[in-house]
Structures are given as C-alpha cells and as structure tokens.
Amino acid sequence: MKVGIIDGSVREGRKSTSVAEWVKKNADSHGGAEFEIVPLAEFNIPILTSATVPGAANRQYDTPEVQKWSEAIDSYDAFIFVTPEYNHGVPGALKNAFDSIGPEWQNKPAALVSYGADSGVRAVEQWRQILANFNMHVVRSQVSLSLFTEFSETGVAPEARRTDEINGLFDQLLASGK
C-alpha cells in the first residue's frame, strides 16, 4: 500500500510542512505501508476555471499543473490529509486542488490530521463531507493539533498522547485499505 501524506497548505511560513514531516516520521516507525509526503505548494495548481469537467474518465486535464497533480494523486492507494483550518473551514488551495481532479480520489481510504486555533476540528468535519462524495472511506480516528499548545518556533511540538493517536489512525487507515 502506498499512502500519500498531503501537505495541505500553500501559505508562506506554513505549519503544515512540519506536521506532514511529523506524520511521516511516525508513519515510517509504524510501518505497514510506503508513506510519501505530497507537498501541495509544489504543484502550483491554478484556480479551477477549466471547461474540462474534473473527473473526466480519461484523466486528461487542461493545464500541465493539474495533469501533474492528477498523476501524482492517482499513484497512491490511500491518503492522510494534513489540513489547516482557515476561518472555520477548509483551506481554499487544498479544496481547489481536490476539486480540480475526480476519479483519482474514488474509493480510496483517507485519514485526517488537522491544526488550528480550535485544533482544526471544523475543517475535519467539512472534509468528511467532501471526501464522502468520492466514496472515500474516512477513518474515524483523527489527530487535531492546537496552534496554541502544540507548536513552537521551530514547528509542531505535539503532546505525548498524540503518538498513540497517530498510531491508531495508521492502524485504521491500513486496515481500511485491505
């Protein structure tokens, strides 16, 4: 099983990268699959204005950026979305990237790791609704990190209990992909 850890922010100074690296470090220790970070910021996906219907069965898109994104996402069997919460919701760039393609997401398991002022829980709830539209099985376990207590000047600094939480998330994700 190949799992993409989507680093879901494109902002300058984003915290998602340190969270994605923490997830990968723990995933590699957990084992059971091949884990790779997918840095959304490196794809430079344009705002969805294309006349091509996302989800085209042939997976052919109008821009090279979206085509590259499609091919990358299609190569994974499951996903861990590292999502910030912006203004009580999902980040626009990640939602745009998600909406820019379609069949690449279909029927694949997913897990959610969030962060924000209220630990990103509202973004997680919205992602659960969005991912369900593509028949993605989103595991129950999630890890939600507080911007106020679990980040330092150098990045994410999760509470000790998060190790058990992330391992439970991996267990559920890997079991749902079998």
Would you give an account of this structure?
With 178 residues, the protein is an alpha/beta fold. The model has no long low-confidence stretch (mean pLDDT 94). Helix 3 links the parallel strand 3 (78-84) and strand 4 (110-116). Helix content is 34%, strand content 22%. The strands form 2 sheets. A 5-stranded parallel beta sheet has the order 2-1-3-4-5, sandwiched between helices. A two-stranded antiparallel ribbon has the order 6-7. The chain has helices at 16-30, 64-74, 92-99, 121-132, 162-176, and strands at residues 2-7, 34-39, 78-84, 110-116, 138-146, 151-152, 155-156. It comes from Dietzia timorensis.
In short, what is this structure?
With 178 residues, the chain is an alpha/beta fold. The protein has 5 helices and 7 strands.
Features:
22% strand; 178 residues; globular; alpha/beta
Give me the Rg, rounded: 15 Å
Number of helices: 5
Q: What is the helix content? A: 25-40%
Give the CA-CA distance, first to last residue.
9 Å
Q: Count every beta strand, where a strand is a DSSP E run of 2 or more residues.
A: 7
Largest sheet, in brief, is: 5 strands, parallel
Strand order within the widest beta sheet: 2-1-3-4-5
**What class, by secondary structure content?**
alpha/beta
Shape, please?
globular
Measured by DSSP, the beta-strand proportion falls in 15-25%
Q: Which stretches are low in confidence, meaning pLDDT under 50 for 5 or more residues running? A: none
Topology readout:
Blueprint: E1 2-7, H1 16-30, E2 34-39, H2 64-74, E3 78-84, H3 92-99, E4 110-116, H4 121-132, E5 138-146, E6 151-152, E7 155-156, H5 162-176
Helix pairs in contact: 1-5
Organism: Dietzia timorensis
GO molecular function, one term: FMN binding
Domain NADPH-dependent FMN reductase-like: 1-148
